[in-house]
Design brief:
heterodimer, A: alpha/beta, 5-stranded antiparallel sheet, two-stranded parallel ribbon, 9 strands, B: 650 residues, mainly alpha, 30 helices, globular
Chain lengths: 317, 650
Amino acid sequence: MKRLRYAGVLTAVALALSGCGGAKVGEDKPVAGGKDCGTFNLTVSPWVGYEANAAVVAYVATKDLGCKVVKKNLKEEIAWQGFSTGEVDVNLENWGHEDLKKKYITDDKVAVEAGSTGVKGVIGWYVPPWMASKYPDITQWKSLNKYAALFKTSESGGKGQLLDGDPSYVTNDEALVKNLSLNYKVVQSGSETALIQAFRDAEKNKKPLLAYFYEPQWFFNEVKLVKVNLPAYKAGCDTDPAKVACDYPPYDLDKIVSKKFADSGSPAYDLVKNFRWTNEDQNAVARMIAVDKLTPDQAAEKWITQNQSKVDAWLGK
Amino acid sequence: MAAITSDVDVEIRRPRRSVLVGILLVVWLAAYFVLRGIDTLVLGGQETTAPHRWLTEHRDDVGRGNAVFDAIRVGVEHFAVLLQNLISQPSFDRPVPVIGWLGVVAISAYCAWAFGNWKVAVLTAAGLGFVGLQGLWQESMDTLALTIAAVLLSLLIAIPLGIWAGLSNRAFRVATLVLDLMQTLPTFVYLAPLTLFFAIGPAAATIATVIYAAPPAVRLTAHAIRSVPPESVEAARSMGSTSGQTLTKVLLPLSRSTVVVGINQTIMAALSMVTVAALIDAPGLGQTVLKALQTLDVGVAFNAGLAIVVLAIVLDRVTTAAGDRPWRTANRRRRLLLAAGAVGVLVAVWFSRTYVWAAEFPSQVGIGSWIAAVASDVTTWIQDVFGGFTYGVRDAVTNGLLNPLEALLTGSPWWLVTVVVVALAAVLGGWRGAVPAAVCCGLLVATGVWHDSMVTLASTLLATVVVVAVGLVLGVWAGRNRRIDTWIRPVLDAGQTMPPFVYLVPFLALFGTSRFTAIAAAVVFAVPVTTKIVADGIRAVPLATVEAANSVGSSAWQVISKVQLPVARRAITLAVNQGLIYVLSMVVVGGLVGAGALGYDVAAGFAQSELYGKGLAAGLAIVLLGVLLDRVTQAAARRTQNFDGRGDKR
């Protein structure tokens, strides 16, 4: 017993002595950032493409302008609310949302548009690549009925299954199925995770799958899904949601900032306004984050060293 | 529910009741074939009704700029941020928190030892060291800070309310109704509005957690107080105790172990909210899980989920040990040791404030990436090996049980379903069952999502039957055998606190996007709570009673069915009720993996502003389903209890 106690005391002393050798807290103080830029709140929506936008803009704002960027991980709807409570200043990738634009930009005047990101959004119906090569005509909507039996599942009640997606996206699929007289039933998968998992499984095990999906999306780096051609979109063909019989319109993804931030005269606002790149750029950064597992900052740094001229253009250099 | 009542009172039920139920079901089936497809009240995915649109328009009316809400927000926010500054976030102009990792480990282990025993102290130190090695120290401390804030606030409200509901019958009835609402109303319904009242950040996250986590503590405190034998209270009264003395000297000490179960459940519930709260920017492990799942990185998500489970197990064991420890028994030797330990803790805290190695968890030795890699490999292996077989199971259950049940519920006219449900409730539970059943059915029609409600009801019934069956078996097993209890408890804790999405990704791979996947997820989530309450009830059966049964040569099965289950009936009713409510609280998660119906409506209402009203209505429909099933089972249980009493006299 006594020996044990000695051993304990000795260990404690040894630990204390060895511990005292380490570096002390606060010895290497971080250098203070520039003052004129200040702080802005950047919402980060829950998909990797958005994260790529946020990574690059935050990196440039911090390193070149000396701003402090506070990233907040929020669902889109809550981010829009944040414009009115003053807790969100910048949204770097907005998919449509005309109703929210009306509420927060036109009516409440708490937010303003800050131009396009240059990224084009595509929404539609997709099949895994193995199906497109085995049944070449499946990419035309007119032949979908011919293959309906392939897509039967326990959920689709004897018809073909059209797997719908993330509840965040507005879909016309129920109307489309009806108006194009397709022998399909819309089944709600309920989340992006479920959709991606379904496509991954379908391609790997050669299972049939027809589902609602969208580009740009990091998953296209893993499996190159093939889009089914619905009747082409013409302006105005989707005005009455109940009578839609055409493809989804192309989306011009844009940026929204709070009124307060736009009027602040911060150089960060000019950066956000000038920020503009392409689907390929976004995919490259998204791939580094999703597949190569780089942190957003590492990914941004890597992309910027290869594309300095684009960054210079955003900064007005 | 059918399983529980038939399990418990198969001997005592009068044949007339089962015959009546049988006749009702046959009549319903016959009527279904004649009337199917009429008045089924189907509403498409993007369609809304006038009340839904009205709700959408008036979403922001409540609570804007309200002084009371502001005061609550400031108070809660300061409390949460204070805890974060203490242990997780750089604070007070220092690059590290006030207390570094060494200090946190020392304080936690010391508290575990002081309030519990040295075993849980070692477990605490090991658990915290483990999450540090996982490379998740700061995230874990953020989660811990918010959890402590939420649990303390919950208990501050829940214990007094629970005592009140335990003493007063009227308070008990009101409380049950409100608690049902708090536990079954999906978080998604109030998450977005909460950020309007309480702003984005720790305050809203903490309050959302309190709403979800406080009910078990209230319920179990009330249950504990009501379960104290009346003889003890009578004895105290006859010796002239005041009601205050009776409460502090008799009721509370006698109900302590069950109150601790309630506190445990509150902690578990709070930790199971970690990922949901991350949707409104609550810092911590939830963020790691969500980020990993954006790229379907099951390994990293599992690593973070494991950290949540480890925290849960540590907190659970420490509270349990604290609950078991007799009060005021420290002798002189222990007091000396405690004082010496306190000095050691102070030294550790000083170290953690002074030296970098004790302030920031060393990152050289990381097992996080190894755990992540193993978890992904195991997942892939399971998917590859069992993939084909599991689809077969799914199709068999879906086509054999779920689809017929769902067809019957959704295909019948709403008024036929209502008549049958009210009649069933009347037969099983008398007017106490029939009146709530009628009211709930009427309100379900009013929500405008009747059809979706019936789809969800079918899955819920199936899931609850499985939960109760599994929970009873496991609970009796664990309640009769301490060792089994020690072994299955970590698994149960994991089932309750592992964020559902971590295991849903492999489930999705095994069963595809389907209602079956949602049922499986609900079972995993709800079985632990049912098991724990049943086990607690079985253990509370007086030893003398069991011994008496054993001494007359009863078999194990006879002891279980004739003695333990009937004596623990009250706990079993509570277990069924909680199992049901936990199943319902997973409806939304089910909606995210293919269950559609109410769960999807709620999720869509959270994501699309124009569907907000419909989401709220669907959330209320889930509550109504919960109240309906709860009232009918409670009334049925009360009836069988009465029969039981009469039978005894004969």
